[in-house]
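2024-03-11 09:14:02 DEBUG pipeline.ingest accepted 1 chain
2024-03-11 09:14:02 DEBUG pipeline.ingest length=787
2024-03-11 09:14:03 DEBUG pipeline.predict start
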Amino acid sequence: MKQLNRKLLRELLRMKSQMLAVAAVVACGISVFVSMSSVEYSLRETKVRYYSDYRFADVFMQAKRAPEVMLENVRDIRGVAAVRSRIVADVTLDVPGLNEPASGRLVSMPDRKRPVLNDVFLREGRYMEAGHPEEVIASETFMEANGLQIGDRVGAVINGRWKELVIVGKGLSPEYIYEVQPGAFFPDNRRFGVFWMSRDALEAALDMTGAFNDLSLTLAHGASEKDVIQRLDDMFSRYGSLGAYGRSEQLSDRFISDEIKQVGMQITVLPTIFLAVAVFLLNIVLKRLVSTQRDQIAVMKAVGYTNEEVGLHYLGFAMVPVGIGAVAGTALGVWLGLGLTKVYEGFYNFAELIYYFRFEEVALSVLLSAGAALVGALSAVSQAVSLPPAEAMRPEAPVVYKPGVLDRKEFQKKIPVSVRIIVRNLERRIWKAAISVLMIAFAVAILIAGRYGYDAVNHIMLVEFNEKHREDLTVIFNESRPYSVQYDLASLDGVLEQEFYREEPARLVYEHRSRRQSITGLKTSNGLKRLVDAQKRQFQLPESGLLVTSTLADVLGISPGDTLTVEFLQGKRRTVRVPVGGVIDELLGLSAYMRIEELDRLTEERGIVSAAYLKIDEAKSEKLFADFKEMPGVAGTSMLKAMLESFEELIAQSTTASTVIFTTFASILAFAVVYNGARISLSERARELSSLRVLGLTRHEIAVILLGEQAILTIIAIPVGFLIGIGLSVLLALGLSSELYRMPVVFSNFNFIFALIVIVVVAVFSGLMVNFRLNRLDLIAVLKTRE
């Protein structure tokens, strides 16, 4: 082994705690980069592969009832590659072991298995057999949530008739990667499931022979999606078409696509922070090393080592810990990536979510690590290379100091010596102190931003489930019902309060912009459902016109006072001009509200409702649920409490994992900065502190002088970190928000208290480790050392 390599190894072992701290910071940054990069790539590639293997459609359309002969006309549209017609129906289910009614979506499949658009992946069991109309394939998530097995039976009310369905297969589809009940945003896998049923059986049950109500198609390469959608709308308007739309508006695809974008955001922010801290730590450690080894540099050059050899030697002090950190970070990143992939499997229903680890991640992590090492070591290596041997043999010229703020006579008797020494040292190294504060603040910011997602989701749940929705049960009718249905529901034993609303599908047009959007007609805005914005402020319905959500207003480029063209997509399909009466900043989805009487007038169809919100008597709920399970005309029900419980269970898993990861990484970051700062301060001031000990100061007083500086830096860094954390959270809110949901910028007190406690604990632990070294200081050896 060469002499310089032996010296490098010896010095690294002597500085092992400082170098391990640097390696740990690098490992954190690289692990985040590798894990997020691999997860983002895995989700994207799995989605593409899943869509391709099971032929996920490009364009979708729902209609009231269209004749099957229209398919030939669709095939003739320029740009259409493949077409599939289906029958889709939402029904009420009676699930064994579940007291309350569940909802199911029945989707027709060919009577004999063959490749089709929006195909089904069969996880277990078999395909439906011809001549057995009762057989179905059930969605995997629904079966697992209810403990159902192949061969179990589920009751369903289809077109007003009771039918028993036999589960013969467990399946998934790319159409339902995110499986939620129509109109909902939160999954409730126990009370909503998808069932694939033979086309003949569903035709007979719904009296839809020779007709369809759902169309999906794929486009040829280079085809214009907009043109195809326009042709479909013109062709099927007479059949009750609700407007064709592309894959980007399909609910499941929008959720998973937004998730992939959000994961991609995290690839740059956190690794940048950790590697910046690593650069800072390497810089201060190596600068101090070169400063204390001036005489050794002189000897190395005097005996014949070149500037390049000396430079590479000191560069090794950066490359070794960074290299260790890169290797450990890559391994940790793979482990985290696998764990995060498991978490995503609980949210999204892929046939197989494959974790991809690519060589590109390793190569990029090596480049990032090497770049951090070079930048961190550049200043110190340049200093070592540029030192002439004769100059290096002399001690550094003493710094010219000026009296500090507390060195004035009026302070000398009032303020203890230890405090004056601490303040004086901070004043003389103001830039180093400022950067140290910034690095510690980054650790605080990561803790704040790491728990921000939990606070935001908790706020969304509070607004949606406590402030906005106050019903117990929502009953959705399979088609519009006359207002007299209120008497049927009111007669049910257990219904305490009811409130009806109307959903009318429409296309909203303003200048060159348009959007397919249902208009919700409400009787009141302060009943079981209230109109509440992100700040929990209650809104009233305008006397005339539409109240639209802020996101919908942004999409259409409208503001209060503008006039929209509203094209209703069913019934008399009227086109009317409607003013924008107000804008509300809701957290979930795109919505447009108006008074139900106004909606009746505009459509020229009065006294029609689509669904009802109910307040029920819990003591009589069992009998009430049994009635709903057998009630014709009900397409589905949803329970607010059950949806909340299901969502909280899913969020708890991801929140716990992210909190542990962010807390661990932020603690490592804070420890590395505080510990290295104190260690370097100890090495720089060992002679000064030893002299003070000889002059009569106690060990406690010496420790206060050394660690008090780090304590002040930490105290200053905490509020700075709070501000940076808020800024990072705002950036996260902007990046994570989409048309489907907006992330509110909210923080709980616990978030800040938690960050404060973690940083204080880490700082105290770092201080105890440095104090242990301080107590072992050899006063005689230090005082004999030449400055």
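2024-03-11 09:14:41 DEBUG pipeline.report Residues 640-694 form the longest helix (55 residues).
2024-03-11 09:14:41 DEBUG pipeline.predict end
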